[in-house]
Amino acid sequence: MHLDFGVAWKFLPILLHASLLTIALFVLSQVLGTLAAFFVALARMSPRAWLRRPAAAYIWVVRGTPLLLHLFFVYYAAPAIGITLDAFPAAIIAMSASAAAYNAEIIRAGLQAVHRGQLEAAHAVGMTYGQVVRRIVLPQAVRIVVPPYMGNAISHCKNSSLASVITVPELMLTAQMIYSSTYRAIEILTVTGLIYLVLTSCLSALQMYLEHVTTYERRGLGGARRRRLRLDTPVPMTPAS
Amino acid sequence: MIEVEDLRKHFGAVRALDGVSLSVAAGEVVCLIGPSGSGKSTLLRCVNFLEEPTSGVVRVGGQRVGWHDRDGTPRRVSGRELARTRAEIGMVFQHFYLWPHMIALENVIEGLVTVKGMAVGEAAAKGRALLTKVGLADKMEAYPEHLSGGQRQRVALARALAMEPRVMLFDEPTSSLDPELVGEVLRVMERVAADGMTMLVATHEMGFARKVAHRVAFLDQGRILEMGTPDDVFGRPRHERLRRFLDQVLA
User: What is Dmax (Cα atoms) for chain B?
Assistant: First the structure.
């Protein structure tokens, strides 16, 4: 078998350009999907059935059907109700909807992992609901959520390749077009795979960084926090009370 | 300082509190004793409205908790007003419930900073003095997971004291501690009592109740069956149920 990576080298700028669209697809739908997920998660945990049931149904339907189907559905169904969507916005809608369903369950798990007793203790010192969420729940939920959230983000990044089927000229579709005209599938697919690997590796690195900054227990206190608490000045000898 | 009138709390068919009346004077220490499920915890949790009573009235410092009747008709207070009332009622829990993402000192000053709006530096000075007072001068920077049960409970005590509450509620503060750690927590509680704090304490520590309490109330099936001085309750129990309970816990 004769391999010619010169072809891949020649088309690398085009592949890199296409990966910008892959990044745009991923980042936009991930951000929109996460914002929506926060509200879906809150609705899913609501004591009010009219909020909880639709949220649960949404998660059930979207997680239970393939993203490929969502892409086709948004792209082909939108004209039926009088809206003509370009491929890119259609892909953003379908991918955001999918990310929202998965991330809602991840966020819910994080919010619910904070023990109820800690919330009671916060209410007992006189915090309002908003203060409890901000000071007690979110700081702890974030660290619980980071690993599953980032794992899901990596899947989501790779799933952006599915947008190729509705003609979004992202990395995967571009690769297909190149190898079908050059007949250099192995070389082009290898380089394309490496580009995906670089993208997902960046996300893995981000995950490691986020896990590092949220597990400060094992690293002690940072300088700013020490100074704010005046930990390095001597303890006053007279009790305050 | 604390007044409870005909308090009832039903969980479905279960009557956790079945008409409890009790008043605690300023500076008084009242211990609640009784078997598990007798309503001790529920009573404490109703005092600061962590549990909403089915009926009855709770007043702390003359002010009704959870309700106001400014214009004649009683109305539920807003979340903000309830929070303000709770800031004046300290509570210590059986399972501590420290916030694990904060060091001991931050746990103690969180209420001062977030609820009272005190500057962090000022709050920290106060928090350090309090932690020193409960014997934890060398543990200010420790996260809760690195503290023993007794140390955690003393941090929780300092956290409640920091708010300078008018009364303090203790919900079995030593029941989840190893036996050798109980003493260090009880000693701090004794000192808080000696400083004149109004305290309502649910406990299984009969020695503490006998030594520190001004009055002891025996709860059984959601009612106060017997109440009096420690000498009366422990020395001359009138009810058979109380005698049986004391035989069991003192055996």
Answer: 56
